[in-house]
Amino acid sequence: MTATVEQVKALLPEGTDLSDEQIQALITQAETYLRGRVRDLDRRIACGQVTAATVDFIEASMVARVARNPDGYRAEGDGDYSYQFDSRAAAGFLTLLPDELTMLGINKGAFTIAPTNPRRRCRRHRGPCDCPVEPPWPGWWCE
């Protein structure tokens, strides 16, 4: 599940000044960045929440954004020639767009509440266990 140089070049019909080796290095960085942002990426792929093709597309898109503008120019001028660099270029410029995070199943909201049922504590085992609950029903915790 790693994008290829060909996938990146397919997103760059205008071409790029970067060599294949540079693109491959960026792909490796993009995958590392992606795995850092989505720590359970392998699980999401294994259970079908995300396809490997989607991950490849996102990696290729991240690299293509850098390859289109490897110097990080944000603005240029003509009279007395002036230019400005994008501050994100200094940080590597590999970023995930909000739509890409959504494609990976990451929803950014104000907060997320993920309720879980704690394991029941049992008198017999002195800790969490899966013993069947017997009446009287003590709820989640045995006494």
Would you give an account of this structure?
The chain is mainly alpha-helical and 143 residues long. Helix content is 37%, strand content 8%. The chain is built from five helices and four strands. The strands form two sheets. It has a two-stranded antiparallel ribbon. A hairpin with a 6-residue loop joins strand 1 (73-76) and strand 2 (83-85). Helix 2 (20-37) packs across helix 4 (52-68). The radius of gyration is 24 Å and the shape is elongated. It starts with a helix and ends in a 15-residue tail after the last strand. The model is unreliable at 135-143 (pLDDT under 50).
Question: What layout of secondary structure does this protein have?
Answer:
Elements: H1 5-10, H2 20-37, H3 41-46, H4 52-68, E1 73-76, E2 83-85, H5 98-103, E3 121-122, E4 127-128
Antiparallel strand pairs: 1-2, 3-4
Helix pairs in contact: 2-4
